[in-house]
Specification:
Two copies of one chain form a homodimer. Chain A is mainly α. Chain A contains nine helices and no strands.
Amino acid sequence: MARVKEFDEVKALEKAMHLFWNHGYDGTSLQMLEKAMGLVRSSIYNTYGNKRKLFNTVISHYEKTVITQLMMSVEKESDIRKSMSKMLNGEINLHFNKNNPGGCLIVLSVLEKAQHGDESTKLLESIVKKMEKFLTKKISEAQNEEQISTAVDVKSVSLAIATTVVGIAVMGKAGFSKSALQNMVATTISLLDAS
Amino acid sequence: MARVKEFDEVKALEKAMHLFWNHGYDGTSLQMLEKAMGLVRSSIYNTYGNKRKLFNTVISHYEKTVITQLMMSVEKESDIRKSMSKMLNGEINLHFNKNNPGGCLIVLSVLEKAQHGDESTKLLESIVKKMEKFLTKKISEAQNEEQISTAVDVKSVSLAIATTVVGIAVMGKAGFSKSALQNMVATTISLLDAS
């Protein structure tokens, strides 16, 4: 029975995640959460505390699932051009995956900063910064391995790729096509070719 | 008197613009609008129709002022590397200008798509697409003038720069420093150096 309960909780959490991801924080009402999660308000409060705490739990869940999955596929790839392509294409696929609401929950929530208190803001900013640091680490390692020239400005190229990753979530939402964004990836990756 | 009235209307509209820019659409209540605009609900309805119509008026005002101003400074610059630097630095300055709420109203609103109907969505998407087309036109002209090599993939480089522009709004909101983002600009501009 424990396993069944755990499964249901994850399912309910993912329903909440999709609501926040689609509608934003203030755009997601308790009524919408009750309906999607199949829980009455008192059960939501008993399990998660309140809407704010539920949101923080959702953000951590998004990090542990969606983002970690993407990072792991990037981490596995030792060729830096291939790994950065995976990162960018991963973000494109995240948007165009029909099971998702589109865009990125972290990108939306960062922009809705004024709707969040200090705790959520810290959590959200740390996730974006971790992503950028992860790219810096990968590119720096590749430079040490002589996969890329010492002429590559690791800090700026990492930030440029991280900025493109978050920008993709916006451009996808603004209606740019998957193929146009995919074609752009090679251009962004060419930043690693400085010599 | 007409001139005074016009001035006040623009001022009220900009107060509304800053609210939506900071809090998002659903995050901005009528009470917040009344207080910031110094108008009672009936005056807002009489002047703008309703919250949705006020939002569309605000978006058009943002395009005519904030975005047009940026485009014009970019348009005036005939050197393509300098003009694209102006575009990227303009977006950085937009975020770090202390008179603004940070980020970009269009980027936030595009991500809050689910909060908007067809009319607002069309308006928002058209603004992002116009920005990208404007970059394509500038880069294409520069290629015809032999400022950049024929090896530059105009479509992909334009989209990469446009994606970086919207991404800057996110990275600024996520707490990246002005100097780190400014240092990144030269890297993004190097996409024009393909040969």
